[in-house]
Amino acid sequence: MPRTADHDARRRQVAEAVAQLVATDGFDAVTVARTAAAAGISVGLVQHYFPSKDEMLLHAFTLARERIERRVHDEVERADRAGARIEHILRDALAELLPLDARRRRECRVELAFTGRAIDNPRLAEALGRSNAHVRAQLAQAVHNGKECGEVEPAVDGNAAAQRLLALVDGLRLHAYTEPDTVTADAARDALADQLARVFTGRCHHRKSTRGGR
Question: Which candidate, 135, 137, 111, 138, places its Cα nearest to that of 124?
């Protein structure tokens, strides 16, 4: 068990070094040598855990996504315990994917860099597709739950609504990052809230409604 834990910790150390390089210097800065230096380990040790650069990038992308997904999950759990509307739970959870502060802006830089790389990297593209499918499934489930509690009309197509929401978030992430003076944090929040309000049009019969948010 200790060896496995140490192995995982080393791989995580390398993945975090990759994310750091991408966030500060861009994707072109990611080499095995620079990653080793950023992680504070030898080139040979990096190559021991990741025989190819593609494997190193894939692991870094996977961990970056998992970190964000855990935070989104925690936000959903917190809001659900507070009895918030599903609409508001999604609003605050999806806002975690947007560059609304320094921490999320750094994460978005890494996310956008990996997304661009996926165009020419089939393994990254496959991982990105799996992650997006997981998010869409969760969004579709949230719409289904909304139907059960009265927030969503029965005729709403949950899968289509999920696709539109994720597409909106992807677009907002890109434009809020590259054009922050035009697509401001408030504008991004408003666009997200507007789209959610088009889906969640009813009153929840099971929860108390909450107001406000980030």
Answer: 111
